[in-house]
Amino acid sequence: MGITSGLVLYAVIWFMTFLVILPIRVETQGDKGKIVPGTHAGAPENHYLKQKALITTGLALLLWAIIAGIILSGVISVNDFDWFDRLPDPE
Prior knowledge:
53% of the residues lie in helices and 5% in strands. It contains 3 helices and 2 strands, in the order αβαβα. The chain has helices at 3-21, 29-32, 49-73, and strands at 27-28, 44-46. It is elongated. It starts with a helix and ends in an 18-residue tail after the last helix.
C-alpha cells in the first residue's frame, strides 16, 4: 500500500466513523425547551463537535492501523474477493 492509498483509506475510515459518532449525545432545542423561532425543534443546541472530531480521529487511527496491518501482512488480498475467477493467479 502506497502513501496515497493509505491516506485515502484513513480519510474514508475517518468520515465513516465521524458519521457514526455524530448523532451520539446530541442535545436538541426541543430537549432543552429553548426553541429559537424559525428553527426546527430537532436542531442541535449542544453538538460537542470538537470532542466528537477528536474521538473520531483516535478511533479512526486505531481502525486504520488494524486494517492497514491486515492489508500489508497479506492475510487478505484482492484475489480473496475474486469470486468469478476474473483476475490472474497470483505468483
